[in-house]
Amino acid sequence: MPPSSATGFLNHPDQSNLPSRPIATNPNEIADFFNTYFASVFTSENLTVQHPNRTDPVLTELKVTELEVETLLNSLDTNKATGSDEIPARLLKETASIITPSICKLFNKSLQQGTVPQDWKLANVVPVYKKGDKEYTENYRPISLLPILSKVLERYIFMNIRQHFSGIIYDHQHGFLQGKSCVTNLLEALDYIGACLDKGGQVDMVYLDMSKAFDRINHKRLTQKLANSGIGGNLLKWFQSYLTDRRQRVTVLRVTSKSLPVCSGVPQGSILGPTLFLLYVNDLLEASTSSRAAMFADDTKIFSAIQSQND
Asked: Which helix (H) or strand (E) covers residue 129, if one does?
């Protein structure tokens, strides 16, 4: 689908040398334009994953306690926007001592049955400007506002799988990891390059960047990678449910679009999204044995000292 122009979102002088694009002139049209464009980048390949599990399941079941639920509710940031259920964080936080037993039962039922409530899988998407011409929808990033309660459960799961995945994600990954950043990413590359240049050598480097990487994750392939990483049982079923049958609608200029199905990707704005993304791209460089790499999420630098014309 060609990028759309949303001139009602931000007036911009017409440029006659550009190809004609569809134009939205009122808030409802603009919201639908954004949602249609964001949905157009999804992939829906009918993939049959045949890779066998590489390891026996290590994490299969989780059970949350009332103390853990109340602690998570009391730690909520009351300034966070509500999701599609419109239940504010302040209400959950101020009534934590009362609602904790019921919320704990709800969370444990979700974990034990391996299902995510359908209402939690509807995202209110807010377009966030990235760069380029503000008139065009392709220059905005979709940030999902999810129900606060669903993010509380995501937080609990993240806290319980974080240590497990820390031993799986390769050291050359610097995105979304505690103690790492774009600075450590640069330092790793510069240290290698500097050492090589000090010896009078040459370093060749290739830069890779995946377009719409978060939105194009194949759910079946990601589920298989979760299984290969040691996730199994009801926890794996929960992740399958979390990923599938999601829907999104765009809210902009005080109006909300119709909802559309989400057939790929992980929600940007979720708690689990970054970890799931890192797992998905983790094996990207497994075939590279002679080169070094430094990654920040999907931004990748592959570099190697050149010893001969055959390198």
From this structure: strand 122-129
pLDDT tens string 146-198: 999 999 999 999 999 999 999 999 999 999 999 999 999 999 999 999 999 99
With vertex at residue 187, the alpha carbon angle to CA 310 and CA 182, rounded to the nearest 5 degrees, is 110
- Does pTM top 0.90 for this prediction? no
Phi, psi of 5 (to 5 degrees): -100, 130
Which of these, 175, 173, 267, lies nearest to 217 by C-alpha position? 267
Strand partners, 245: none
Amino acid at 128: V
For residue 168, CA distances in Å to 29, 189, 283, 286 come to: 45, 21, 10, 13
Q: How far is CA 164 from CA 26, 150, 221, in A?
A: 48, 22, 20
pLDDT (tens digit, 9 = 90+) per residue, 288-305?
667 889 999 999 999 999
96-113 and 148-166 helices, crossing angle to 10°? 60
DSSP sequence for 285-311: TTT--SSEEEEETTEEEEEEEE-STT-
Report residue 295 as tokens. 């990654």
Angle between helices 96-113 and 233-243 (to 10 degrees): 100
Give dist(CA 155, CA 242) in Å, integer: 14
Which residues, in sequence order, are CB contacts of 19 under 8 Å at separation 6+?
none
